[in-house]
């Protein structure tokens, strides 16, 4: 049998189209930057000359989830991980859940079906905050979580979910307890979707459509942050939560695959925000694209890699009687090696 090959003409045609699109994007990019430059924000801060905090007891926390899609159902693996300065680890999970365990019958979104993955995300994020609450028993000098402390207006679509209610209660509990115990909390948002700043300005449509980090990427250099000092976001929903936290966008590398990160502070951490930002800057570098080294470590370790989910799937297959193996066929007919 002849081996299948890709049509050379199709490849050349695709290459030509990609080249044209690249040229158009480059022209549009230069034009866009010229338009944006005149809207440069005032009072951009810099922590290059600031003195860094030197915490001795630190905790970094992240969570991960993995889905195995079967023809009959999906299986979700969810876990959270905390790592301290000595490399000691504390896990929450892993939990293995199926769709019926996650499904909340009373919640139907506007498209008319349950978005199970959203519920999984909320369970995962709730585990981060629960682990942070547990970590406060050790009275660390700082807790850094991978993700936001601020609840954006977009989360209103989850307000009918029990999973969201649990998540929101955990955010509130962490906020009040951290202030009571005087423990700084930082939320490191790697891929912020927020428009906290842009939507407060009367920008033209082509700029107001941009997210904050995309807009600010034009102006911020390594060690720069904006707003300076950090401010509370203007939100329509969840004001009781968001008014307790402060945010700024921060650039830790001159060149990175990421636009500026968003850094959320509780009211304890924001008192020394410059020193904390310098500490984050000092403990990150090009090898992690500007993400703090320990946060990158916990992010990599908590993610349930494909090798783990494949192994769990094969174990499950082995334990199911032959006549019932059709129940756990993969949804798209993939091969598990």
Descriptive notes:
Helix content is about 35%, strand content about 20%. The protein is α+β, with helices and mostly antiparallel strands. It has one domain: Nucleotidyltransferase, domain 5 (2-Layer Sandwich), CATH 3.30.420. Strands 1-7-8-9-6-5-2-3-4 form a 9-stranded mixed β-sheet, with helices on both faces. Helix 3 (about 115-135) runs parallel beside helix 4 (about 160-180). The model has no long low-confidence stretch (mean pLDDT about 80).
Features:
337 residues; alpha+beta; 9-stranded mixed beta sheet; 10 helices; globular
Give a quick account of the main beta sheet: strands, pairing sense, barrel closure: 9 strands, mixed
**Strand tally:** 9
Order of helices and strands: HEEEEHHEHEHHEHEEHHH
| Average pLDDT number | 80
**First-residue to last-residue Cα separation:** 24 Å
CATH class placement = Alpha Beta
Looking at the structure, the CATH topology is Nucleotidyltransferase, domain 5
Radius of gyration: 23 Å
Broad shape: globular
Give the helix tally.
Answer: 10
Strand content: 15-25%
Query: Which strand order does the major sheet show?
Result: 1-7-8-9-6-5-2-3-4
- Would you tell me the structural class of the helices and strands? alpha+beta
Domain module tally:
1
Low-confidence stretches: none
The second-level CATH architecture is 2-Layer Sandwich
Helix content: 25-40%
């Amino acid at each position: 049998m002849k081996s299948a090959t890709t049509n050379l003409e199709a490849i050349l045609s695709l290459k030509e189209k990609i080249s044209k699109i690249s040229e158009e994007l480059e022209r549009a990019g230069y034009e866009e930057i010229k338009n944006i430059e005149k809207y440069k924000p005032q009072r951009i801060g810099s922590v290059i000359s600031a003195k860094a905090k030197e915490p001795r007891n630190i905790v970094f926390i992240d969570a991960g989830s993995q889905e195995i899609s079967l023809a009959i159902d999906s299986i979700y693996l969810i876990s959270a991980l905390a790592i301290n300065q000595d490399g000691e680890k504390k896990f929450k999970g892993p939990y293995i859940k199926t769709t019926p365990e996650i499904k909340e019958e009373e919640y139907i979104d506007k498209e008319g079906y349950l978005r199970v993955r959203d519920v999984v995300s909320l369970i995962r994020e709730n585990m981060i905050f629960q682990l942070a609450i547990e970590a406060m028993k050790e009275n660390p000098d700082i807790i850094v979580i991978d993700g936001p402390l601020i609840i954006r207006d977009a989360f209103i679509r989850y307000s009918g979910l029990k999973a969201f209610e649990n998540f929101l209660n955990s955010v509130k509990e962490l906020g009040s307890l951290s202030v009571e115990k005087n423990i700084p909390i930082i939320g490191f948002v790697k891929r912020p979707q927020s428009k906290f700043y842009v939507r407060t300005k009367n920008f033209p449509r082509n700029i107001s459509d941009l997210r904050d980090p995309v807009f600010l990427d034009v102006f911020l250099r390594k060690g720069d942050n904006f707003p300076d000092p950090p401010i509370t976001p203007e939100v329509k929903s969840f004001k009781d939560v968001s008014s307790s936290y402060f945010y700024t966008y921060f650039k830790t590398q001159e060149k990175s695959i990421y636009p500026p990160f968003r850094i959320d502070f509780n009211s304890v951490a924001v008192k020394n925000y410059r020193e904390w930002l310098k500490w984050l800057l000092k403990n990150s570098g090009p090898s992690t694209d500007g993400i703090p080294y320990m946060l990158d470590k916990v992010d990599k370790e908590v993610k349930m890699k494909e090798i783990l989910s494949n192994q769990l799937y094969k174990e499950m297959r082995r334990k199911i009687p032959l006549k019932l193996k059709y129940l756990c066929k993969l949804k798209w007919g993939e091969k598990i090696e």
